Amino acid sequence: MRATVLVIACCLAIAGVAVGQQPPQTNPYVEKIVKEISAKNIQASVEKLVSFGTRHTLSDTLSETRGIGATRRWIKSEFERYGKGSSGRLVVEFQESTVLPSQRVPTPTRIVNVLATLKPAQDGLSAGRTIIVSGHYDTRASSPMDVKSDAPGADDDGSGVALVLELARVMSKYEFDVTIIFGAFAVEEQGLFGATALADWAKRQSVNVEAVFNNDMVGSTVDGSGTKENGFVRLFSEAFTPLDTGAVLRQRISLGLENDGGSRTLARYIKEIGERYNPEFGVQLIYRLDRFLRGGDHRPFHERGFRAVRFCEVKENYDRQHQDVRTENGKEYGDLPKFVDYEYCAQVARVNAAGIATLGRGPQPPTKVEVLTARLENDSELRWQKNPEGDLAGYLVRYRQTSSPVWEHSVFTADTTIALKVSKDDFLFGVQAVDKEGNASLVTLPRPSGRQ
Ligand SMILES: [Zn+2]
Question: What pLDDT, in 10s, does the model give residues 268-320?
Fold first, then answer.
């Protein structure tokens, strides 16, 4: 759960490897971004969001002080304020669509995501690669259809939106090779419609969405029994998507890759990078799409084949979630700002920042990665296509026991082939591209190749 130990494989395990100059494991540029995250700013944003009374999807859209309309105009103005320090690279917009009547939306309803898109610093090779980080700004009271009562949603999901705002504030001053979309989504509580609208757009436009970091309830550290946990966050990911069917599914299972789908690979990456840059805070991988009886905005992305994960606090408090604000028998109910642990939320923000910044400055994942299976032998040979980036240092070849949840071994090479003195039957392999700053890409898992 805590800092992952990166084991550099002993030279004896390597045969005929052209080992180049291994770059550092941490990048001062990313460290600087992580250090700038402020719990105070997150608190101010949560308190402002709560001040709109309710952010129910069907609440007032015209008032300047109450309801969903005032909320989204304020979020937009915040993004625009941060954009002033971005040299015109942060583009802020409302993404509008109409939800047709459904179980929790009785009439056709205009819904609005607030998006701030940070353009890449230059129009290079990675400009089309896109990372999305999100929270949802709508809330609900005890009844999902109650549009009048206060529904403060400080934790659900004021914490996620405040985290996204803080990342936009900090990161828009820095330069990345990729496009980063900071999203405050609408209508999560009534059926994930806001996130679905963006996921559909990304699919239609064939956007190269490399990763979705969804943050939903990332500020509670005390549960209903009073037990506290503030040392780690849960990261939910599902191994398979509904698109993994037929021959694709059969091959994945026969290769023992049932634990290495896109979203799971992303989760493993975030844990490793997050704990490296912020060693005192852990990331617990949860091998599930989400919690029982609950859903989240990563789901529409995951179901469309994008890598998408959800951050969620460890100690959920059911006296506060989806509850009318009230006191009964001396007990306070409701999702109020005083119950949010802002330093905890900032820690989750730092994990997000480390992962997004590393991916955003790093190379694209290697392509055409193959494990050679032409002969029966006890060693393992891999090869892959050379990455096109000019600042590339080389590749990290990763491997682990088939039963291990995280990568255990790491070998650096500047070459595009490697021979390892371990059996391909007994390990899972992957290859990451790494640049001279030390930013590593996502891991690409090899396909078997019978060619020599
Ligand atoms: Zn939520």
Answer: 999 999 999 999 999 999 999 999 988 899 999 999 999 999 999 999 998 89
165 CA distance to ligand 1 middle (Å):
16
Query: In the CATH scheme, what is the code of domain 7-26+364-449?
Result: 2.60.40.10
Asked whether the beta carbons of 160 and 208 are under 8 A apart, the reply is no
Distance 402 CA to ligand 1 centre (A): 34
CA of 187 to the centre of ligand 1 (A): 10
Structural domain boundaries in the chain: 7-26+364-449, 36-361
Dig out the tokens for 154 from the structure.
Answer: 């400080």
Backbone angles phi, psi at 370, to 5 degrees: -130, 145
Closest among 407, 394, 377, 400 to 438, alpha carbons compared? 394
- Of the candidates 427, 384, 451, 374, which has an alpha carbon nearest to the alpha carbon of residue 257? 427
Q: For 193-249, how does the pLDDT look when each residue is reduced to its tens digit (9 = 90+)? A: 999 999 999 999 999 999 999 999 999 999 999 999 999 999 999 999 999 999 999
Pair of tokens at residue 20: 């180049």
Give distance in angstroms: CA of 189 to centre of ligand 1.
7
CA angle 219, 225, 227 (to 5 degrees): 55
Any idea what the Cα angle at residue 4 is, between residues 345 and 299, rounded to 5°? 50
Tell me, what amino acid is at 206?
Answer: S
Distance CA 275, CA 281 (A): 6
The owner of tokens 């969405």 is 209
pTM greater than 0.90 (yes/no)? yes
Q: What's the token pair of residue 19?
A: 């080992």
pLDDT confidence tier of residue 4, bands split at 50, 70 and 90? very low
Contacts of 43 (CB under 8 A, 6+ apart): 162, 337, 340, 342
How many whole angstroms from 8 Cα to the centroid of ligand 1?
40
Domain 36-361 CATH assignment equals 3.40.630.10: yes
Note every long-range contact of 446-451, with CB atoms under 8 Å and residues 24 or more positions apart, other chains counting: 446/369, 446/370, 446/371, 446/382, 446/384, 447/369, 447/370, 447/371, 448/255, 448/370, 448/371, 448/373, 449/370, 449/371, 449/372, 449/373, 449/374, 450/373, 450/374, 451/370, 451/372, 451/374
CA of 234 to the centre of ligand 1 (A): 15
